[in-house]
Specification:
The protein is an alpha/beta fold and 283 residues long. The protein contains nine helices and nine strands. 40% of the residues lie in helices and 20% in strands. The chain is globular and about 75 Å long. The model has no long low-confidence stretch (mean pLDDT 92).
């Protein structure tokens, strides 16, 4: 057997192994079962309520050692929304009495705080932990949601003032079950880039730029998504796509995402800035 023939057989074997790995992942994730949940949701009489005028939107926010950014950036941007019919659920990932007290001091009946007794658990490996940190409070928040739509935001993100209005309008116009836009990335030390494109894909989708139909709540974040090399955010979006969920892309900035100087992915975002630059579309 020649070296070329050996190389071809190795490539074929690698391709077969990748295919088997993907098949095992889909079996673990139960893709047919997820598609069945989506179909049942569409047949539920409550499904149509999401497309009625002024449905309630539940803002989902997980907090860990939440401080000034949680209140001065994320929650402040929620309170500035031009769309008024929302509730916000802050779930502390491990008891945080200071956050609970500050939420109460806001005296905003639309915002409530829930407490998890302890943080996590999450993987010990730093990269794996980064990919799935926050999964537990995210899932707990949607379990308590009363809204017809779920609007995720992280504690250090900031929404455009019409974030909810723009995404809800797009979802209602197109009958989408997920509507998402562009995230502007503000990089420490100066400069910016963005994520968000059609079709949604890894590194070009984030739930902080999205709303989704509350009928999709049974499709939960998976704390084991790191095992397939995926952040939990993208893992959930991919599973929704494979289950046939209808996505709509709004080509404008709806969220600001901040990369600090100590962010583990700072160099990656700087490379993206060099390759892609800032968002040049509508805003």
């Amino acid at each position: 057997m020649t070296s070329d023939e050996i190389a071809q057989r190795l490539l074929a074997a690698e391709e077969e192994i990748r295919g088997l790995r993907d098949l095992v992942v889909r079996a673990y994730e139960d893709t047919p079962g997820a598609a069945e949940k989506v179909l049942r949701t569409r047949r539920d009489p409550a499904y149509e309520a999401a497309y009625a005028p002024e449905p309630l939107v539940t803002v989902r926010l997980g907090a860990y050692r939440g401080g000034e950014l949680l209140f001065g950036r994320a929650l402040a941007s929620v309170q500035r929304q031009t769309y008024p019919h929302w509730e916000a659920i802050v779930v502390c990932d491990g008891r945080d009495e200071e956050v609970a007290a500050r939420v109460e001091a806001l005296a905003e009946p639309r915002i409530r705080c829930l407490q998890r007794p302890r943080n996590g658990p999450y993987p010990d490996d730093p990269t794996a932990r980064w990919k799935v940190a926050g999964v537990h409070p995210f899932n707990q928040a949607v379990a308590s949601a009363r809204g017809a739509w779920i609007a995720p935001i992280d504690q250090d993100d900031e929404w455009a003032d019409d974030h909810l209005e723009a995404l809800l309008g797009a979802a209602r116009r197109t009958r989408a079950e997920v509507a998402y836009g562009v995230g502007r990335v503000v990089i420490a030390g100066g400069g910016e880039t963005y994520f968000g494109a059609w079709p949604p894909r890894l590194a070009d989708f984030g739930f902080q730029t999205a709303i989704y139909h509350a009928g999709l709540v049974p499709l939960l974040y998976d704390v084991n998504s790191y095992l397939v090399g995926e952040p939990a955010d993208w893992n959930l979006a991919r599973r929704m796509l494979e289950a046939g969920v209808c996505f709509e892309f709004v080509e404008r900035v709806v969220t600001d995402y901040f990369v600090d100087a100590d962010d583990a992915n700072l160099d990656w975002w700087r490379r993206r800035q060099e390759q892609r630059g800032a968002f040049a579309g509508g805003d």
